[in-house]
Amino acid sequence: MSGAAEYGSLAEFASVEALRAAVGGLRKRGYTRLEAYTPFPVEGLAQAIATSRDWTAVAMLIGGLVGGVGTLALQYYSAAINYPIDVGGRPDASWPAFIPAAAEMTILFAALAGVVSMLIGNGLPRLHHPLFELDRFSKASRDGLLLVVRADDPHYDGEAVRRDLSELDATHIETVPS
Asked: Which of 6, 122, 134, 150 has the fewest CB atoms within 10 Å, measured from its CB?
C-alpha cells in the first residue's frame, strides 16, 4: 500500500454506463474505498460505491437515551436526594413532573448526536481536499464523470489501480497527490 505520497488515483469516464461498469469492475477486484463525482445524480451509483454502515441512527438512539435518562436521573437526584421539599404531601420523586423536561432533552440530545455523527461520517469539517488541486476536478460540476480510488484502500497499489482503470475504459487517469 502506497498511501503516504498520494491521495489516490482519479479516472474520467466518457459515459454513465462506463462509470457504472468501472465501479462494478473495481468492486469485483476487491477495491472498497471509492469516490465518484458527477454533475448530476446517477441512479444506483451511491449504492454501488457505499460499503460502510451509516451509524447516524445508532448515534441518535444513544444520544436520545443519554439525554432522557440523564435528565430523569438529574431531576430525581435534585428533587429526592439532594434537596427534597415537601409540597402538599406529594412524594419527593414525582415522576410525572419530570417527563416534559426529559422528553425535550431526549429530542435535543438525539438531534445533536445525529448532527455530530453526520459530520464525522462525511469527514467534515474539511477546509481543503487534495482533489481541489487538480484542474480536471472542476469538470465534475460541468460534464465530468470522475472516479477516485483512494490510497487508503487495502488493495491499493498505484500502478495496479491505474492498469485496472485503463482496462475499464477510463478516458483519462492521473495520480492525486496528498
From this structure: 122
Neighbours of 17 (CB within 10 A): 12
Q: What does the DSSP assignment read for 50-82?
A: --SPP-HHHHHHHHHHHHHHHHHHHHHIIIIII
Hey, where are the domains in the chain?
Answer: 6-52+129-177, 56-121
Which alpha helices (DSSP H) does the chain contain, by range?
A: 16-28, 45-49, 56-76, 95-121, 158-167
pLDDT tens-digit readout, 31-64: 999 999 999 999 999 889 986 778 999 999 999 9
Nearest to 12 by CA among 3, 22, 27: 22
The side-by-side arrangement of strands in the sheet containing 6-13 is: 34-37, 145-150, 6-13, 172-177
Cα–Cα distance between 110 and 66 in angstroms, integer? 9
- pLDDT, residue 4, reads 56
